[in-house]
Amino acid sequence: MQLSQASAEKIIKDLGMDDMPLVAVRPAPHQVPADWFQRYRAARHRFMQSLTDSVEELAFMNLSQDEFMALVTGAAIPKNMSVRMRTPMAWGGEISPENMFMCATFPHSQNIDRFIIGQAGYDTVWLPAPAKKIYIPAHTGGGGDGGNATEDRLSQIAAQIASGRGLE
To answer: Domain ranges in the chain?
Structure first.
């Protein structure tokens, strides 16, 4: 049975991600390059470094300064966070930062896997397509313990990093 947009949206809502946009994709098997892992690691590193423009979303993650610095320098992903491909490589998704987003491993990344795997064999599948680089469900709004101070602190750090990279 093929999912309609309405049925796909209902399933994603039942998984606690009712604000997650979906896109229809006709999966066409592609050969994954032999060097995919090295290319993925390099793209993931660039993606993590690009998160300095996502300070508002990072503030909601309630990261310590060390975790924040490790993330935006590309050194380490915080615990319980996953970098995901918007379109899987096996279906032609490019190994690039533009094809990546970050979300909580539990429950969101695991639920996204369940959602996608549940569509196996369909001619058209619905893939999550968050608007931003970091998916934080709207119902978790309210930020971390630091409130605006957390966002201000992270904004200052991000501005320093951007300045150091000549991205002012």
So the answer is: 5-164
| Phi and psi angles of residue 36, each rounded to the nearest 5 degrees, phi first | -55, -40
**What is d(CA 79, CA 96) in angstroms, rounded to the nearest whole number?**
22
Rounded Cα distance, 148 and 56, in Å = 10
HSE (CB half, 13 Å, CA atoms) of 93? 23
Residue 117 DSSP label: H
Strand (E) or helix (H) holding 159: helix 147-164
Question: CB–CB of 88/65 below 8 Å?
Answer: no
Which tens digits make up the pLDDT trace of 92-134? 899 999 999 999 999 999 999 999 999 999 999 999 999 999 9
* Cα gap 133→52, rounded to integer Å: 11
Give exposure, 41-61, as e/b (b: 16+ Cβ within 10 Å): eebbeebbbbbbebbebbbbb
The radius of gyration of the chain from alpha carbons, rounded to an integer in Å, stands at 17
Residue 166 Rama label (left phi>0; alpha psi -120 to 50; beta): left
Res 152: pLDDT: 65
**Hey, which bits of 19-162 come out as E strands?**
22-25, 81-85, 100-104, 125-128
